[in-house]
Amino acid sequence: MQTGLRVSRGGFVVIKLLVNGIVCLLVRRNLKWKDVNLIGGHLKDRDQGNLMRAAYRELWEEVPSIRNMTDLSLKPLTGEVRYGPVLSRSVGEETNYEVQFFLLRMEGDATSLLNNLGARSLNVLIPQNTILRNENGRVSGLILFLDRILPGGVEGVPLSSEANLKPRGRWAERRHDQLEFAWN
Question: Which end of the chain is more exposed for a tag (fewer CB within 10 A), N or C?
């Protein structure tokens, strides 16, 4: 086993929604790396070593429309798992990631989550099957890792909300694949 590798810890959130009858994931595009990843990120000192706290903090930072929603919670999908070593593009060295994945559960009306995202949001809604096919290589390795380690894969993860959402605004206007939209 390799020793002395950089270790990075983080919490990530699966937001899985039924939108106009299509199972989609709300993911975040990274303009620098030209890929999409789950909402979430690195553990910070203020998280006090708690990956769920890190996931909540990242969720509130990356999806501001969630701040006004009530009746939401994070449910662990995994315990803490190790991903890597992989080359970290941000620091340019091999890194072991110690991560935990959570499902966002929303009991109330989840439509406002999408309708309140601004036009400049880095968050995009992509059909689950498009993400899992990863035909253009623009899906983060963390999503594909989660798909491998979960019994039933990402497809087996329950929906974040039971509602079949009918979004308005820019979400309703999308006529082509959101992954294409992510890079326009």
Answer: N
Residue ranges for the chain with pLDDT beneath 50? 1, 175-184
Sorted by where each begins, the domain ranges of the chain are 6-176
Q: In degrees to the nearest 10, what's the CA dihedral of 87, 27, 160, 50?
A: 40
pLDDT score at 178: 46
Q: 51-69: string of b/e by CB count within 10 Å (b at 16+)? A: bebbbbbbbeebbeebeeb
Listed in sequence order, the residues at least 6 apart from 133 whose beta carbon sits closer than 8 Å to its beta carbon are: none
**How confident is the model at residue 183, as a pLDDT?**
36
